[in-house]
Amino acid sequence: MHPNDQPIGIFDSGIGGLTVAHEVSSLLPNESFVYFGDTAHMPYGDKSIELIRSYSKGIVDFLVHHHQCKAIVIACNTASAAAYTTLRDELKGAVPVINVIDPMIEKVINNDNISSVGIIATKTTILSGVYQEKFKRRKPSLELHPLATPLLAPMIEEGLHHNQVSSVVLDEYLNNPELTNIDALILACTHYPLIKDEINAFYQGRIKILDSAIVVAQKLKGILTNENMLAQRDTAGKGIFYVSDYTEGFVHAAKLFYGSSINLKPIILNEH
């Protein structure tokens, strides 16, 4: 196999990162990828940084050494904040590592039309201050409006979107005074692309909705192009999907997040 035809590794604490895998597959249809959802340890949000790094290292070791992945995408906000620097430094010069936070930061600070940005995410991501810290360091003039929206992820996982439930919950969150007078809204959770159209409808196209799954896929394409690492094959790539804990609930949720039925393979990794 040509080295460029090796797969891309994508991992998340659960199945939410399948929205990233879906966008990667759509934007780079010739690329193959291996997805790992650490469903046995989800959610990462209530774990220590050291433990998240340990889980992440084990997953990346599996993706790089067992599947010879040519690039790694951390499709999880918590793992991106906790483990990105460590993984990047360990794989430096060998395998590019892309996280789900920095590409969004770059996109926003390079857009002069955005002076006030809203950030919606899980409570853990907002309390970590990772987006706020990076924005303040890179573009101090940017007005930041972070808002924890803890009901959205479980609501989406239960399939309670595009109905009255999601309408009421979204209205409550998006009418929050914290989100007034914003130019753009960052969907800083990999679950949120599934309700992007509902959020867009709320704002009636008045503000820019920034989908982290799309932004990360675009960043990955840019890196693979610049490094001459794009797949050489003319045929469509394939996806392999692993989870560390298998239930029928995950199968149902995976279809929801990826947009079509997929075959989840249960596998237990040796933990560090």
Would you give an account of this structure?
The chain has two domains: 3-99 and 214-266, Rossmann fold; 102-213, Rossmann fold, CATH 3.40.50.1860. The mean pLDDT is 93. Helix 1 packs across helix 10 (212-226) and helix 2 crosses helix 3. Strand 3 (71-74), helix 3 and strand 4 form a beta-alpha-beta unit. It starts with 7 loop residues before the first strand and ends in a 6-residue tail after the last strand. The chain is built from eleven helices and ten strands. A six-stranded parallel β-sheet has the order 4-3-1-2-9-10, sandwiched between helices. Strands 6-5-7-8 form a four-stranded parallel β-sheet, sandwiched between helices. The protein is an alpha/beta fold.
Short description:
43% of the residues lie in helices and 17% in strands. It contains 11 helices and 10 strands.
Defining key terms:
272 residues; alpha/beta; Rossmann fold; six-stranded parallel sheet; four-stranded parallel sheet; 11 helices; 43% helix; 17% strand
The overall pLDDT average reads: 93
Question: How many domains in all?
Answer: 2
Helix content: 40-55%
DSSP, total strands:
10
Main β-sheet description? 6 strands, parallel
Radius of gyration, whole Å = 18 Å
Globally, the shape reads: globular
Estimated structural class? alpha/beta
Helix/strand order: EHEHEHEHEHHEHHEHEHEHE
| Content of β-strand | 15-25%
So, CATH architecture of the largest domain? 3-Layer(aba) Sandwich
Question: Main sheet: which strands, in order across?
Answer: 4-3-1-2-9-10
Terminal CA distance: 30 Å
Would you give the CATH topology of the largest domain? Answer: Rossmann fold
Low-confidence stretches: none
Level-1 CATH class name of the largest domain: Alpha Beta
By DSSP (H or I, 4+ residues per run), the number of helices equals: 11
In terms of quaternary structure, what is this? single chain
